[in-house]
Amino acid sequence: MFSMIDPDVALQLILQHSVISPPIHSVIYDCVGLCLATTVVSDVDYPPFDRSMMDGYAVRLLDARNTVNIIGEVAAGGSGENSVDAGTAIEIMTGAPCPEGAEAVVPKEDVTREGNRVTLPAEIRPGQNITRRGAECAKGATVLNAGDAITPLALATIVTFGIEQVSVFPKPTLAIITTGDELVAPHETPGPSQIRNSNGPMLVAMAQSLGVSPTLVTHARDTMDELRAALAQARTCDFIILTGAVSAGKYDSVPDALREFGATPIFHKVTQRPGKPIFFATRDRQLIFGLPGNPLSCHLGFHRYVASAMRKFMHREPFPAGATGTLAVPYVMKGPRTVFQLARAEMRDGAWSVTPLLGKGSADIYAGAIANAMLRIEPGSGTLAVGTPIQFDWLLGAI
Ligand code: AMP
Ligand code: MG
Known about the structure:
The chain is of the alpha+beta class. It has 6 helices and 29 strands. α1 crosses α6 (295-313).
């Protein structure tokens, strides 16, 4: 038998048993959202040539205020044959390589053109509107460091240097196993004592919001045989999430099935509401989460525990930044367990106004359907008045 543990101890134990995945090589386009495992170094100067930043005229500085002859043009992707000498200008487009002799590019808007002659402004700064070769990134410079996230901008930077294969910390493989004789698929019409399986799609969506697509999503009825068969299919996954059959009921066979599967239980109950009977086990490097079937308990189990371990696996910060707001309505804290309360945070007059969404217990997802935030309230907090400052986490997929 396991004793109940504190929610912070539970999280610590999970992170202690979590592994950071070894890096893999992958094509960059599949890696957005992942973290780099190596530095990216530029092998060329960037830009690769002196580049014009404006549509205008490449000129010599001593020609400020003069009227000069336009002796040619150079467009983006083109190359000018002529060089700029005193008394001449070359028309140039944004992104084009500057011709030899160009000391500045004067924007089109700052000149007066008549036929093939152009009168330049009185003041021309040296190097004006020219990005010199290597000025943005010199050959050999570090573009990104190991651990940096591959955002769309990072991807654009990496492909600029012709790199399409990178070393990254990969996403985990994941199996989701729902359990329960009473459950039918969402497209089915439930019988008199049946309900639709909503935890399965919710867990898939939560994983996807971390960029993780489950390798296996399956359902087991409440028999050892079906659980065994489902676990057998999940045996090579980095993460296994089960939902339901994890408490002390007669048909709650997940803890026994996991022991038989060769898993080592780490804890079974956490002093929290919702989600008290959460079961956590490991099997070699595999992390196994038995989440209660009640939808809010299941949601909290992923939000607080599974997501942190998954982020760590991918070498990301386990806890994303939350925010602070003030309570829009009073909140009455009851009971001896830490409460994780769904809430809606709305921006009002430049600050987050937070409304707890009180449902009718951990089976009630309807009140939570518009939630975007999670509050944490400790036992003994009493009644929190309107305006009380309160910290919150953003829900997965809500921002
Ligand atoms: P359990 O943890 O198996 O005792 O289930 C607790 C409650 O959650 C029961 O009312 C179940 O019907 C419900 N439940 C279990 N699994 C799911 C699921 N996948 N989707 C929706 N409700 C569920
Ligand atoms: Mg059940």
